[in-house]
Amino acid sequence: MANHKIFTMAFARVYPLYIQKAERKNRTKEEVDQVICWLTGYDPAGLQQQIDQQNDFATFFAEAPALHPNRSLIKGVVCGVRVEEIEDPLMQQIRYLDKLIDELARGKSMDKILRQ
After folding, report:
1. Average pLDDT of the segment spanning 79-91
2. CB–CB of 36/47 below 8 Å?
3. Which ranges in the chain belong to alpha helices (H)?
4. Name one Pfam family in it (predicted).
5. Residues 42 and 64: beta-carbon distance below 8 Å
6. Phi/psi of residue 84, nearest 5 degrees
7. How many C-beta neighbours within 10 Å does residue 49 have?
8. Which of 49, 78, 83, 87 is the most exposed place for a label (fewest CB within 10 A)?
């Protein structure tokens, strides 16, 4: 497994940036949390615990209760790379999350974002 800097970065450090990005586009923190919980299986208390513990992305995804089975339906480009073509499983999970936040900020409906 490649040792990318993002793997060791605290999720709690990036989480406020996800919220800021969404709020700039008139979306809410609750919607950001809903997207994160959908992808990872965390409930709101579990998500808050990960933030409070300052866990890095590797730990955040390793401890995720249940990665959503429809996450493979997330397609598109993040940072110039197609998320469905990323080979490293952890990097792919991180980019899935980035893609979901991007879709939220672009005004997509929650049904489409959550692949329902």
Report:
1. 92
2. yes
3. 11-24, 29-40, 44-52, 57-62, 89-105, 110-113
4. DUF2200
5. yes
6. -75, -10
7. 13
8. 87
One DSSP character per residue, 4-32 reads -GGGGSBHHHHHHHHHHHHHHTT--HHHH
Assigned CATH for 5-113: 1.10.8.290
> What residue spans define the domains of the chain?
5-113
How confident is the model over 90-114, as pLDDT tens digits? 999 999 999 999 999 999 999 999 9
Digit-coded pLDDT (tens) for 15-52: 999 999 999 999 999 999 999 999 999 999 999 999 99
Instruction: Provide CB contacts within 8 A for 10, sequence distance 6+.
Output: 54, 55, 56
Instruction: Report the run of H or E that residue 86 belongs to, with start and end.
Output: none
